[in-house]
Amino acid sequence: MKTTYIEPILDWYHANARDLPWRAPGATPWGVLVSEIMLQQTPVSRVLPVWHAWMARWPTPAALAAEPSGEAVRAWGRLGYPRRALRLHESARAITERHGGEVPSSHEDLLALPGIGAYTAAAVASFAFRRRHAVLDTNVRRVLARLLTGVEYPPKAQTKAEVALAESLLPPDPPTAARWAVAVMELGALVCTARSPRCVDCPVLDQCAWHLNGRPAYDGPPRRGQTYAGTDRQCRGRILAVLREAEGPVEKPALDVVWADPVQRERALDTLVADGLVDPLQDGRYALPS
DNA sequence: TACGCGTGGGT
DNA sequence: TACCCAAGCGT
């Protein structure tokens, strides 16, 4: 069976791709890597301004590696999941020390860096170095679930079958495989969205198994709903926000005022310290890590 | 394998 | 209004 959806999706991408700075001709592998870390679980619109500021301040891994980790946490701003900033800083130091300051191009070397898993390693190898990898993120998983499997959503946890399917679809030629990877991801981000998909704009609607099935509703276990209010995560976020916005070290009472429950507050502070996001100074004050 | 980990915009 | 969810990773 000859596949007829590769070409339409490549053509659709050529005509509809967003003009994102990490896709610009002058974008460096470092810029691609920074974007991928920031985009983990965070929308493009919120990443854009932080990415620009970050790249202006730290245009190379060595530039970031020369700074204290706390500066990375501060510059991370309100992107969320600030441990990513810490790991990106660690990666910058590893790249500077182990790779001569150049972002490695192989999936294996990328995977060895902190904060880089299977998806991000494949994405950087593909987007920055035009290597041939299955780039399987939440967008691509959803597109393949609909187009080929005929269901509205993929399973909660990624399966080996999904990986095998994605790899089987890769065009043999690496540059074309790289174009395919970014194109199918973009289709998921702009058209084949989680809610209210824009099927009228889909270049492969006539081949979509889910559409041909009559777009049956998702039939499976409830998809996780994450509560946030009142959690340790919210408490950690408030504590760290105080430190980000402070010029220097702060007294303990300045942290205490952000959360009423002292037990939860102390627990959150302890885990922030354990994570390396907060530095307890000898004089009793607290600061972003140096 | 399932869970913890931030934040804010869309529906 | 309350969810839902957004280019995941590490444990």
From TrEMBL:
Listed EC numbers: 3.2.2.31
Keywords, alphabetical: 4Fe-4S, DNA damage, DNA repair, Glycosidase, Hydrolase, Iron, Iron-sulfur, Metal-binding
GO biological process: base-excision repair; mismatch repair
Top-level division of the source organism's lineage: Bacteria
GO molecular-function terms, A-Z: 4 iron, 4 sulfur cluster binding; 8-oxo-7,8-dihydroguanine DNA N-glycosylase activity; adenine/guanine mispair binding; metal ion binding; oxidized purine DNA binding; purine-specific mismatch base pair DNA N-glycosylase activity
Reaction(s) the record says it catalyses: Hydrolyzes free adenine bases from 7,8-dihydro-8-oxoguanine:adenine mismatched double-stranded DNA, leaving an apurinic site
Family classification: Belongs to the Nth/MutY family.
Name used for this protein in its record: Adenine DNA glycosylase
Organism (species): Actinomadura rubrisoli
